[in-house]
Design goal:
With 100 residues, the protein is mainly alpha-helical. The protein contains four helices and no strands.
């Protein structure tokens, strides 16, 4: 029983640490200038992105490529330019965005 409790606590810490780390990545890479979890800014919310890609098996790949190459016309008329500063963090950011 103690082992299960320890494992549950360790899992909770790992999950919250991963979420915090990704939020910090979003701040570090400048994503928060245009995006937010629930408040629309220049770009769509992370919740809107996650909802649009829900069930898409290529969702992580799509977000990673969008960060690298940018996008146009996906969420409206304002294009998203490529984000080379976020390239190294793109896989972690994609997972985090999809968790919203």
């Amino acid at each position: 029983m103690k082992l299960l409790t320890i494992l549950a606590i360790a899992s909770a810490v790992a999950v919250s640490s991963a979420a915090f780390a990704s939020e910090e990545l979003a701040k570090k890479d400048g994503c928060v200038v245009c995006h937010d979890a629930s408040a629309k800014k220049i770009g769509p919310t992370w919740k809107a992105i996650a909802a649009k890609l829900k069930g898409n098996k290529d969702a992580e790949k799509i977000i990673t490529e969008t960060l690298a190459k940018g996008s146009k016309g996906v969420y409206g008329p304002i294009p998203m330019p490529p984000q080379p500063k976020a390239a190294a963090d793109a896989p972690a950011l994609a997972k985090w965005i999809l968790s919203h």
